[in-house]
């Protein structure tokens, strides 16, 4: 490959990124070292940093950045590194890299902010998101439709609805992604009427046309609100617009009709048993909570946390207080072959309960407790958290894989339908 030019080598690096081939990328990197002078041109450094960060080799990407002369470090270089970190699930690392970028005197651009807002949303850190939003306003980049949409999504996913609505209303331009974020997040928060109104508003404005994501979000809203007739009207609209063969829309329709016709728990249990018989396993459930910009992850019956003795003591106290307030554990969905006392133990140490107990220990009174779960919150945990919110007088926000649950004074925003 000695005859290749710098441009050709850069194209090969990008091919390695698009095919996710680390061996190819490393081979091209070796040829770059052999062929080009050191340090290589800035665009080659950017390509290499993008390669290693996107393929999960953050240490290699960071080393390349540190070896590059200061004059070669641009917003493109830093954003490639931050983007790679966020895409590979290293959200806290992405935000830390942004701090280093700012110390380097580099201003973010319209590609940097969406990565940062995504990291803030995953970490459930609205405080960090608000600081980023302030910077986006200061640099006028908030006027960019993609930056504005990512800020809207961040606020929605961290449960700060008022700020999300404010961003939406102040956006000078809205694309279909903006409308989709607004409708989807209204469904996540259980604001069915708001989701329906936004969908109708989208149709009335007429600047953008709904796509498969819009239809799926609206079907979720109709299913959650049991708006059978409205959903059936949308079904006709889906067919007219040519989305009748879209897999995601079809799944949305099946879910919609299933919910509106009240599928029973017995049928769901039969499906679960069939899945177990043929070896299909549900992903392991976990919950996480952000305390002082540090993410704490919990799994059911997890004893590994450094504060586990305090967590266990808090759970014991909450259990006594809840029973005194009339709480009865929902054990009907626990494993079938357990005694009742064992079933109570089984549901008492679910991941969201562990995360909540830790939050009550670590987060000062008066501050909302925000928990994220990768699966649907179970019936018992939902009931327990309602009781706990009333007992401790705290606002508790749980985001599961279906929607937001805002618990306050013993009541949940989903009205016990999720």
TrEMBL record:
Pfam families: DYW_deaminase (PF14432), PPR (PF01535), PPR_2 (PF13041)
Entry keyword annotation includes Repeat: yes
Keyword Heme included in the entry's annotation: no
GO BP field: RNA modification
Domain DYW: 326-418
Gene3D superfamilies membership: Tetratricopeptide repeat domain
Entries under NCBIfam families matching the protein: PPR
The family this protein is said to belong to: Belongs to the PPR family. PCMP-H subfamily.
Protein name as annotated: DYW domain-containing protein
């Amino acid at each position: 490959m000695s005859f290749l030019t710098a441009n050709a080598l850069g194209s090969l690096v990008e091919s390695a990124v698009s095919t996710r081939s680390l061996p190819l990328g490393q081979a091209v990197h070796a040829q770059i070292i052999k062929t080009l002078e050191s340090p290589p041109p800035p665009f080659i450094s950017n390509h290499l940093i993008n390669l290693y960060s996107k393929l999960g080799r953050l240490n290699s990407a960071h080393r390349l950045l540190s070896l590059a002369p200061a004059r070669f470090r641009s917003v493109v270089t830093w954003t490639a590194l931050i983007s790679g970190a966020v895409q590979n699930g290293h959200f806290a690392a992405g935000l830390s890299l942004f701090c280093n970028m700012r110390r380097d005197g580099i201003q973010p651009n319209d590609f940097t902010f969406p990565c940062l807002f995504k990291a803030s949303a995953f970490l459930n850190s609205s405080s960090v998101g608000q600081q980023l939003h302030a910077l986006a306003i200061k640099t006028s980049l908030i006027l960019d439709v993609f930056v504005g949409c990512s800020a809207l999504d961040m606020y929605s996913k961290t449960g700060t609805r008022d700020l999300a609505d404010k961003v939406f209303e102040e956006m000078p331009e809205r694309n279909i992604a903006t409308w989709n974020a607004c409708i989807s997040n209204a469904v996540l928060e259980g604001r069915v009427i708001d989701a329906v109104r936004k969908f109708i508003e989208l149709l009335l404005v007429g600047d953008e046309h709904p796509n498969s994501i819009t239809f799926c979000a609206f079907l979720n809203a109709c299913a959650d609100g049991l708006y059978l007739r409205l959903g059936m009207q949308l079904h006709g609209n889906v067919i007219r617009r040519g989305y009748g063969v879209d897999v995601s829309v079809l799944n949305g329709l099946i879910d919609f009709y299933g919910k509106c016709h009240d599928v029973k728990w017995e049928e769901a249990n039969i499906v679960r048993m069939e899945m177990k018989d043929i070896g299909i396993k549900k992903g392991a459930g976990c919950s996480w909570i952000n305390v002082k910009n540090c993410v704490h992850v919990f799994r059911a019956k997890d004893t590994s946390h450094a504060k586990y003795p305090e967590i266990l003591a808090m759970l014991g106290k909450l259990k006594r207080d809840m029973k005194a307030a009339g709480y009865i554990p929902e054990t009907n969905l626990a494993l079938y072959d357990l005694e009742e006392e064992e079933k109570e133990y089984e549901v008492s140490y679910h991941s969201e309960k562990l995360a909540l107990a830790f939050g009550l220990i670590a987060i000062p009174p008066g501050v909302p407790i925000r928990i994220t779960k990768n699966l649907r919150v179970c019936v018992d945990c939902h009931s327990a958290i309602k009781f706990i919110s009333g007992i401790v007088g705290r606002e508790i926000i749980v985001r599961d894989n279906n929607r937001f649950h805002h618990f306050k004074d013993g009541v949940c925003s989903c009205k016990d339908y999720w």
